[in-house]
Amino acid sequence: MILWKRGTSMILCGKETEERRQHSTALIPYSVYRCRIPIDFMNVPLHWHSEFELNRIIKGEGEFLCGGERWKAGAGEMLILPPNILHAAYPVSDVELIYDALVFSPVMLGANSGDRCAMECIRPLLNGSAVPAARILPSMPDYSSLWSCAERIFFCVEENSARYDLMLKSELLRLFWILESSQVLPCQEKPEMENWEALRPALEFMMEHFSEGVRVEDLARISHLSQSHFMSCFKKAAGVSAMEYLAQLRVKAACEALASSEKRISEIALSCGYGNLSNFNRQFKRIAGCTPREYRSQSSNAMEARSRKVSMEFS
């Protein structure tokens, strides 16, 4: 796992489901993550949060889901996600995907202000009356300005001080100003999203109860959809079936337990919803690409290597 600073605390990327993680506080209204898929975790499952998110792809290629859109995005591209929109990230075949994600509160853009800037340019992004054209491509006319702005934004975050937070706010506003001026971020009607919204209760239920017996009919009932319509909507939104998504949640939790504890594999399997160890081993290898024992060994070796690197840097 990759650790980045947020104030005086350290954020472990991929440790918890997004709804449990606190991305911002009144004192430090943002967090930053270095995401490496599938090196540190298999994928970023479908989720949402109340903050904006800026993704800067450093290396490789991945598949991103945002609202009703699905893209394959690669190195040099950026994504800007508005608050409360369902989104996810998946690897593309065996290509490693590395991207930086800045998750920041709307207050960084002055959303609480009553001036015309907030009323006309920022709040429409919060109340759903407008959505950003979230994908920024190298072929866009103002791309160089946008990428340079993003570099300054992540530099400010790394400096991690109140003084650089001041510059960070100005650079975020500059980024949105460029997007508005170049009409990359136009005010547009929000696409049809009722079915996506209906899935939120089911997603919450799966994240809370993945270790229990979860049935499709129960998820459909929670979503107030017929079973066939639920399965169709879920596959369209998440890119996988509900049961495959559940399996990914379980294996993701197992990966975290294998890397962070010395529990027996059979105990971990049971705590992640697998009563049959053979089935757990089979599902784990199918999703993670290795056996649980191999994953634990690889995680231990990677942690030792990073510890040696940190020791050398400070020696």
What's this entry about, in short?
This protein is an alpha+beta fold. 46% of the residues lie in helices and 19% in strands. The two termini are 23 Å apart.
What report would you give on this structure?
By secondary structure, the chain is α+β, with helices and mostly antiparallel strands. It has two domains: 3-181, Sandwich (Jelly Rolls), CATH 2.60.120; 240-302, Homeodomain-like (Arc Repressor Mutant, subunit A). Helices cover 46% and strands 19% of the residues. It has ten helices and eleven strands. The protein has helices at residues 116-127, 143-159, 162-181, 194-209, 216-222, 227-238, 242-260, 265-271, 277-288, 292-314, and strands spanning 3-6, 9-12, 30-37, 44-47, 52-59, 61-66, 69-74, 78-81, 87-91, 97-104, 135-136. Strands 3-10-5-8-11 form a five-stranded antiparallel beta sheet, covered by helices on one side. The longest helix has 23 residues, at 292-314. The model is unreliable at 1-19, 186-192 and 308-315 (pLDDT under 50).
Characteristic terms for this protein:
about 325 residues, alpha+beta, Jelly Rolls, Arc Repressor Mutant, subunit A, 2 domains, five-stranded antiparallel beta sheet, four-stranded antiparallel beta sheet, 11 strands, about 45% helix, globular, disordered N terminus
How are the elements arranged and paired?
Elements: E1 3-6, E2 9-12, E3 30-37, E4 44-47, E5 52-59, E6 61-66, E7 69-74, E8 78-81, E9 87-91, E10 97-104, H1 116-127, E11 135-136, H2 143-159, H3 162-181, H4 194-209, H5 216-222, H6 227-238, H7 242-260, H8 265-271, H9 277-288, H10 292-314
Antiparallel strand pairs: 1-2, 3-10, 4-9, 5-8, 5-10, 6-7, 6-9, 8-11
Helix pairs in contact: 2-3, 5-6, 7-9, 7-10
